[in-house]
Amino acid sequence: MKRTELNLAERRKIEDLLHRKVKVAEIARQINRHRATVYREIKRNFFKDEELPQLNGYYGMLAQKSAADRRARRRKLVRIPELREAVIGRLQEGWSPEQIAGRLKLEGHATTVSHETIYAYVYSPDGQSQALARYLPERRKKRKPRYSRTPRGMMFPLERSIHNRPEYIKERSTFGEWEGDLMIFRREHGKANVASLVERKTRFAVLFRNNDRSSKHFMAKLMNVMEPLPQIARRSITFDRGIEFSGWRKLESGIGTSAWFCDPQAPWQKGSVENLNKRARRYLPRDTPIAALSNRDMKAICDRLNGTPRKCLGWRTPTEAFAEELRKLG
């Protein structure tokens, strides 16, 4: 079983070896830990006393107590039912952990909690048993340690922000500019989900089933769906910053379709696909067993959505508007 936190015996060994002026790399070798673990342990738990600097140093027992205190703080949501219920209630209302933590402080609660603690609880066995991750704006299979996560700026660089997207896309003046999203369903029905796409000018909708939420799987399926269209009919797609869209570079290199991304937690910036999702939920409620739906079933839903006259299209249907744009391409 993989070890994580140091135990008291290891901390006492570190204290003893530091007192004997042994180098950190050798200490790590002797306790069979990575040297980075030992460096981090010493830095985190180094005792300092401004009045008695001669007492400064690393002490195994103090380090063990500090570690226990940190664990206790992380366990606030287990120990305090009232706090736990307040947090879970707001998660279910769609609040993000950061919003919950900030609001608790503003309201002057006797006991507050950080957003990192909320995330840790959501991805803990207790939180997983309650399926709390489904309420997060952006869901993952598990929570990575805070300082080992890939910065979102690397996944979704600034130059791909919706604020740098050409103005003509916003104005819906060109054909082939899409928005994309994922529709999520009840956990008991498995990992299957539905990808939703809408062409901004014609409001033409495409829905297809995914059996996995991984970015690699999603992008491969998306490319298969979009590639038969002429290049000019698939110029770009605007997504949110969900982890399933992090493989966008494959979309560009594979079929030449540009990707743009909304601001964090700003789904209204891709309002066309959000509107499509609301209409599609009439036929695909959250308790739908998606894995049981055939491709023919999905096509029938798309045909119904695309066959409905739209006021914004002068009462034409999205199917008619899309076909007209394709004819113009000659």
UniProtKB/TrEMBL annotation:
Keywords: DNA recombination, Plasmid
Signal peptide: none
Cross-referenced Gene3D superfamilies: Ribonuclease H-like superfamily/Ribonuclease H
Keyword Phosphoprotein carried by entry: no
Pfam families attached to this UniProt entry: HTH_38
Domain Integrase catalytic: 162-326
Listed PANTHER family: TRANSPOSASE (PTHR10948), TRANSPOSASE INSI FOR INSERTION SEQUENCE ELEMENT IS30A-RELATED (PTHR10948:SF23)
Protein's name in the database: IS30 family transposase
Organism annotation: Aliisedimentitalea scapharcae
